[in-house]
């Protein structure tokens, strides 16, 4: 069974038109999808910061409790506090680098 050349041309034109329509529509869909993904990533990052902040606060509070009960030396508690500050500073620095890297353009 042979397909006529007119039918093949019509099918080719229909496929080309469909591909063009999908390409144009997908640009808008991708832009909207990127905003959704960006908002979700921001929400997840904020949640992680909250969880890590609560855990760090509990660690420091526990260390202070142990220091008050004379189970730990206050120098040990100071070292724990410095570790917590270092961890928080590293998260802040990585966030800064990520933000600066995301705003870079290569022309």
Précis, in short:
It is built from two helices and no strands.
Features:
single chain; 107 residues; 2 helices
What does this 3D model show about the protein?
This protein has 107 residues and is mainly α. The protein contains 2 helices and no strands. Helix 1 (5-68) packs antiparallel against helix 2 (74-102). The model has no long low-confidence stretch (mean pLDDT 79).
| Helical percentage | over 70%
The largest pleated sheet is described as:
none
**For the residues shown, what is the average pLDDT?**
79
What is the number of helical segments per DSSP (H or I, 4+ residues)?
2
Shape: rod-shaped
β content, as a range?
under 5%
- The rounded Rg comes to 28 Å
Structural class designation: mainly alpha
How many β strands by DSSP? 0
Low-confidence blocks of residues? none
The CA-CA distance between the termini, in Å, is: 53 Å
Question: Helices and strands in order, then pairings?
Answer:
Elements: H1 5-68, H2 74-102
Helix pairs in contact: 1-2
């Amino acid at each position: 069974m042979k397909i006529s050349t007119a039918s093949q041309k019509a099918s080719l034109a229909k496929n080309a038109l469909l591909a063009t329509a999908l390409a144009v529509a997908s640009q808008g869909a991708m832009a909207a999808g990127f905003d959704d993904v960006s908002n979700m990533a921001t929400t997840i990052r904020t949640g992680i910061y909250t969880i890590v902040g609560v855990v760090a606060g509990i660690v420091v509070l526990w260390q202070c409790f142990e220091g008050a009960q004379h189970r730990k030396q206050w120098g040990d508690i100071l070292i724990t506090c410095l570790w917590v500050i270092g961890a928080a500073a590293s998260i802040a620095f990585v966030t800064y680098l990520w933000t600066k890297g995301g705003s870079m353009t290569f022309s």
